[in-house]
């Protein structure tokens, strides 16, 4: 391994990694060479040199073109990561020169945003008003992919959804309890305690099938002796869910309690007294193991930890 590392450090060129990305995009050496403004023979030589350094073939030729094998997929993933990191480096340098003060890209699951992410970000931005901050809300699985590609500095979510959680540094932060919600115009329920069976006549806004919250609702329905709604409205968007619930009194859904309380406070939703049987899912700070965090990312993590301690 050390011999391979020494060879890569002394002979690897960024142009070779860019060629791999172009080959993955175009599936053709001729087209990839054109995109790189290289001759096909120069591109072929660069690929051969890289395969020689790694002592492994990276592509297989097929009817549909040059297709990366398992070695190729591995190297291409890191090539894209390095290219993204270099792009971020140039952006950060440019922003620092212009006085804007750098950039921080954070991914967060829905339930972590109100009580964890927003307070920490407000404190961070107050202390660094020139910092450019990007926030992405998505599923943990999709955000881990963006973390792998270098598009995100941190993810506030779950590392356990990865096929290989050991690739990440994970620091637990808290739980994501859930609440059953309806629109504010929904008639009050006559009883203090309500169960899912009492909502059998309602239409549901559910989550997409690949999302963990869909599996959780499915489990709750099963525990209540019910089947999943036959014709639900499915969405991954909090905004769509809230807008739908506001417009129809017979709709019901499940939202992270922090989100539900935020909208209930502004009289846009009502939280029903339904006690769910599933345990709350935990979430935490996820970063790339072995990666170097920027000072803003480290400060953001410190703020999140301080909030947890204070809470």
UniProtKB/TrEMBL annotation:
<feature type="domain" description="HTH lysR-type">
    <location>
        <begin position="12"/>
        <end position="69"/>
    </location>
</feature>
<dbReference type="GO" id="GO:0003700">
    <property type="term" value="F:DNA-binding transcription factor activity"/>
</dbReference>
<dbReference type="InterPro" id="IPR050950">
    <property type="entry name" value="HTH-type_LysR_regulators"/>
</dbReference>
<dbReference type="InterPro" id="IPR036388">
    <property type="entry name" value="WH-like_DNA-bd_sf"/>
</dbReference>
<dbReference type="GO" id="GO:0005829">
    <property type="term" value="C:cytosol"/>
</dbReference>
<dbReference type="Pfam" id="PF00126">
    <property type="entry name" value="HTH_1"/>
</dbReference>
<protein>
    <submittedName>
        <fullName>DNA-binding transcriptional regulator, LysR family</fullName>
    </submittedName>
</protein>
<keyword id="KW-0238">DNA-binding</keyword>
<comment type="similarity">
    <text>Belongs to the LysR transcriptional regulatory family.</text>
</comment>
<dbReference type="Pfam" id="PF03466">
    <property type="entry name" value="LysR_substrate"/>
</dbReference>
<dbReference type="InterPro" id="IPR036390">
    <property type="entry name" value="WH_DNA-bd_sf"/>
</dbReference>
<keyword id="KW-0804">Transcription</keyword>
<dbReference type="InterPro" id="IPR000847">
    <property type="entry name" value="LysR_HTH_N"/>
</dbReference>
<dbReference type="InterPro" id="IPR005119">
    <property type="entry name" value="LysR_subst-bd"/>
</dbReference>
<dbReference type="GO" id="GO:0003677">
    <property type="term" value="F:DNA binding"/>
</dbReference>
<keyword id="KW-0805">Transcription regulation</keyword>
